[in-house]
Amino acid sequence: MSALIIKLMADGALIPIVLLGAYALVFKIPKGQRLESYKRILIAGLTAYLLAKLIGSFYQPSSERPFEILGKAAGASFLNNPGFPSDHALFISVITCAVWFETKQKLITAILIGLTIIVCIGRVLALVHTPADVIGGVVIALIGSLWYLNIAYRTQ
């Protein structure tokens, strides 16, 4: 697969996720519910981030990233750490969960899920993460999303 396509998958697809997520969270949450929604989003995101850093400080399946092990160049941007869990997968999964739980916008959420899958696959193809790294990021984001369980279901 072309290096440019992999880079676009691994890094470039984050831009539409952030923009679409911001649009949904600003314009699709009713005005009277925004403050409560934003508080939940903040707590869910911080919980996921802190949990990821805590788990990452105790558990690292490898001290090197796949591109280092294989002696190749990284195909996407990365932080100088062992890589578990994937910060990219964590971040975009937190956005996707926030949009789903706070807006109930099925089409926007489906697009975000598709783009999240593309980014996760791209991170593995770019050799900056293993499948366990990206799965770990998604699972930890889902754990942070437990804060949304107290939302009364609203129909739109």
What does this structure look like?
This protein is mainly alpha-helical and 156 residues long. It has one domain (3-150). The chain is built from seven helices and no strands. It has helices spanning 3-12, 14-27, 34-58, 66-70, 87-103, 106-125, 131-144. The longest helix is centred in the first third of the chain and has 25 residues, at 34-58. The N and C termini lie far apart (42 Å). The model has no long low-confidence stretch (mean pLDDT 92).
Give the biggest sheet.
Answer: none
Derived from helix and strand composition plus strand pairing, the structural class reads mainly alpha
Residue ranges: pLDDT <50 for 5 or more in a row?
none
Which overall shape is indicated by the principal axes computed on the Cα atoms?
A: globular
The total tally of domains equals: 1
What key attributes describe this structure?
single chain, 156 residues, mainly alpha
Explain the layout of strands and helices:
Blueprint: H1 3-12, H2 14-27, H3 34-58, H4 66-70, H5 87-103, H6 106-125, H7 131-144
Helix pairs in contact: 1-6, 2-5, 2-6, 3-5, 3-7, 5-6, 5-7
Can you give me a brief rundown of this structure?
The protein has 156 residues and is an all-alpha fold. It has helices at 3-12, 14-27, 34-58, 66-70, 87-103, 106-125, 131-144. It is built from seven helices and no strands.
